[in-house]
Amino acid sequence: MENKRLLEVDLLNAVSNFFKALGNDTRSQILWCLSQGELRSSELAEVLEMTPSAISHQLTLLKHLNIVSSRREGKNQVYSLADEHINRILTSVVEHYQED
C-alpha cells in the first residue's frame, strides 16, 4: 500500500472546523446570502427572520474561523465571505445537489 500523507494537525483542525460550521442550517444560510454580496448583520437578521443577537453570534463564529470578514461602515459592520475560495466551495456544493 502506498504511503499516504496526512494533514498536519493544525490544518486538519481548521478544515474540520470549517465543515462543522457548514453543518449548521443558520450558518449555511448566512454564507449563501453573503455569496450574493455584502450585507449588514441587521439585513441578515431580517432575511433570516432571526434576532440580531442570534445572527451576531453566528457571524462571530464564522469570522473567528476566517470564513467571513467584516468592515466598518459608519455604525454598522458589513459582512462578506472571507475570500473567493469560500464562495467556490459553497457554490460547488449547491450545484452538486441541484443536479439531482
From TrEMBL:
Pfam family, one: HTH_5
Record key words, sorted: DNA-binding, Transcription, Transcription regulation
Alphabetical list of SMART domains matching this protein: HTH_ARSR
PROSITE patterns: HTH_ARSR_2
Family matches, as InterPro entries: ArsR-like_HTH, HTH_ArsR_DNA-bd_dom, Metal_resp_trans_reg, WH-like_DNA-bd_sf, WH_DNA-bd_sf
Domain HTH arsR-type, chain residue ranges per copy: 7-100
SUPFAM superfamilies named among the record's database cross-references: Winged helix' DNA-binding domain
CDD domains to which the protein is assigned, alphabetical: HTH_ARSR
Protein name: ArsR family transcriptional regulator
Originating organism: Streptococcus ratti FA-1 = DSM 20564
